[in-house]
Specification:
globular; Rossmann fold; three-stranded mixed β-sheet; GMP Synthetase, Chain A, domain 3
Length: about 300
């Protein structure tokens, strides 16, 4: 609580270009792995809330898909989810890194300059740069967005994450909690089971394969200390299906084993996982199918 004994609560939305570490930052803030993390761009497809509760405050962190120029219907839905972060934020974090080249006339910069809420420019991955490079990045952002606070940091190394958190807490409005005090996220267990399968596919397959898949949890049943999960992996082409399954099913067995172990660690229960692969032709460009998979 603040000095007057009042509770604080609010939405802290994290936005940025693809592959700047938004998921790593949110997981570090919440203290749980809620967003999957890989080295590939476009890993995050949905907007995910991670909720941090204490007796004094509740912070709802929001990880969003990366801001990109959409090439098909799925990416249009992802961009819509990312842009929604501007609407309901109490504090907005724009996550950038050395190497990004923003311009004063960029649509995004203009939009950020018009914000009426606290804006924190978090300059991530500074562990990969030297002091001179980092200062140059800070100076660039100072010219573009002088009203925003610039915070050099490393989400992976957790350098300056505590300071970023203190600035978030400083700006958090006085409010009762929005969610129950034992809530960790707004997403279902089915959602996280699907994301853990998708994470392993992102890690083990190359080229277009990881981006052409979607996971559907057909069945999620709890039997004492055992979870029985049946999932379908949809892809766009028969050739992709063959690659996903692999010779004698070995590639899919690896995905299943690693996803099952991740689920057991997350759910704290034994997991029986059954995977099937089906083809749903060109689903990423089918607006009806995208909505069926939960994209809006």
């Amino acid at each position: 609580m603040d000095a007057n004994g009042e509770h604080k609560a609010g939405f802290v939305n994290i936005i940025g270009r693809p592959n700047v570490g938004k998921s790593t930052l949110m997981n570090a803030m919440v203290g749980e792995k809620l967003s999957i993390i890989t080295s590939k761009a476009q890993t995050t497809r949905h907007r995910i809330h991670g909720i941090l509760n204490t007796p004094d405050y509740q912070i709802i962190f929001s990880d969003t898909p990366g801001l990109l120029d959409p090439a098909y219907k799925l990416q249009e839905a992802m961009l819509k989810a990312a842009r929604s972060a501007f609407v309901d934020a109490d504090v907005l974090i724009y996550l950038t890194e050395p190497g990004e080249q923003p311009g004063a006339e960029d649509e995004l910069i203009l939009k950020l300059s018009r914000l009426k809420i606290p804006l924190l420019i978090a300059i991530n991955k500074i562990d990969l740069s030297n002091q001179e490079q980092v200062q140059s990045v800070v100076d660039t952002w100072e010219k573009l967005l002088p009203a925003a606070e610039k915070i050099p940091m490393s989400a992976l190394k957790k350098f300056n994450v505590d300071y970023l958190f203190s600035r978030i807490l400083h700006h958090l409005p006085k409010s009762p909690p929005y969610y129950p005090k034992d809530a960790l996220t707004d997403k279902s267990e089915r959602f996280f089971a699907g994301e853990m399968i998708r994470e392993k596919i992102l890690l083990h397959y190359r080229q277009e394969i990881p981006y052409s898949v979607e996971i559907e949890i057909e069945s999620f049943k709890e039997e004492g200390n055992l979870l029985r999960i049946h999932a379908v992996i949809y892809t766009e082409k028969e050739s992709q299906k063959g690659i996903l399954i692999g010779n004698e099913g070995m590639a899919m067995k690896r995905v299943g084993k690693e996803a099952r172990l991740a689920m057991e660690n997350f759910f704290r229960k034994k997991v029986y996982l059954e995977l099937r692969v089906k083809v749903k032709k060109d689903w990423r460009s089918n607006e009806r199918q995208i909505k069926k998979f939960g994209y809006r």
